[in-house]
Structure formats: structure tokens, C-alpha cells
Amino acid sequence: MNDSNLKKETFSELENYKFPTDLEYNDHGKDVLALQDFLRDLNYYPHNNSLNNCPINGNFRSCTENSLRKFQQDNGLNTTGYLDIETRKFVNLRR
């Protein structure tokens, strides 16, 4: 999945997305895309403010991990860089 394949409708589907599973480095797909979109909506993604280096593409790599770490830190969660059960529950309650 890459940015050129993403349609406007794809992002509208993610607005109230609930994460069914934990996510970690090297995961990919709609769940990761929803996570990147969620973090972007809260100004955490991309962590370096450049979508050129950190595209929203559904691939869980260092940009997603670093953005998630900052989100976790700012919200008093365990800073793992992964969408673990604690972070997933926290995020799902806010969707």
C-alpha cells in the first residue's frame, strides 16, 4: 500500500476506527494506516513534520514507532513505541 493507492474514502472510513489487535514494527495494512491517521490528526505524525520522509502508507516503521512513543509519553502510557494493549485501549476510548 502506498500513498498513490489511497483514496479519500479510505481515510473517511478510519475516522472512528477501533483497533482490534496490537500493532508493532513491520506490521502493515489498514490497522497501521488507521494508526498513522489517528496520530496525524493529533499532530504526532509524522514526528519530524515531513510527510516526504514519513508517508501515511500503512507500513509500521520508525516514523510510526517514534510518533507513537511521543503520544504514549505525553499521555502517561508505557512508552513502548508499539500499539500494545494499554495504548490500544486508551486510543479506542478516544475514537
Structure description:
With 95 residues, the chain is an all-alpha fold. Helices cover 42% and strands 0% of the residues. It contains four helices and no strands. It has helices at residues 8-13, 30-41, 62-74, 85-93. Helix 2 crosses helix 3 (62-74). It starts with 7 loop residues before the first helix and ends with a helix.
How much is the radius of gyration in Å?
12 Å
Give the rounded overall mean pLDDT.
88
- Total beta-strand segments: 0
- Can you tell me the CATH architecture? Orthogonal Bundle
Give the CATH topology. Answer: Muramoyl-pentapeptide Carboxypeptidase, domain 1
Count the DSSP helices: 4
In total, the number of domains comes to 1
Name the CATH class.
Mainly Alpha
The H-and-E topology, N to C, reads as HHHH
The proportion of residues forming helix, as a percent range, comes to 40-55%
Q: Name the structural class.
A: mainly alpha
Helices and strands in order, then pairings?
Layout: H1 8-13, H2 30-41, H3 62-74, H4 85-93
Helix pairs in contact: 2-3
Which structural traits does this protein have?
95 residues; mainly alpha; Muramoyl-pentapeptide Carboxypeptidase, domain 1; 42% helix
Summarize it.
This protein is an all-alpha fold.
